[in-house]
Design a protein that fits this description.
mainly beta, globular, single chain, about 110 residues
């Protein structure tokens, strides 16, 4: 089992910045993919960004140039630095870990006011 604990969500004005963190613990694999997805009410959960244990990243087109994913393998932690936030970035953000199976965090709310 893998446990994921997210932090860093909150309320910010449009154009502002936030940094999300997600710490993984439990039966971790040295080789894995971590990332972030987001979801708004009534819609499916969508990819934001992922990063492999080797550092390869993948971003949704809507966030390229504004959101940056990174990780610290020594801390088993993934980060999402969010800048130039827009109201449409408002969502619950979920941390994601996959090696043999997928694991999800409990979600953290990000609200961007206009």
């Amino acid at each position: 089992q893998v446990q994921l604990v997210e932090s860093g969500g909150g309320l910010v004005q449009a154009g502002g910045s936030l940094r999300l963190s997600c710490a993984a613990s439990g039966s971790l694999s040295r080789i894995n993919v971590m990332g972030w997805y987001r979801q708004t009410p009534g819609k499916q959960r969508d990819l934001v960004a992922t990063i492999t244990s080797g550092g390869r990243t993948n971003y949704a087109d809507s966030v390229k140039g504004r959101l940056t994913i990174s990780r610290d393998n020594s801390k088993n932690t993934v980060y999402l630095q969010m800048t130039t936030l827009k109201p449409e970035d408002t969502a619950v953000y979920y941390c994601y870990y996959v090696w043999d199976v997928e694991y999800w965090g409990q979600g953290t709310q990000v609200t961007v006011s206009s």
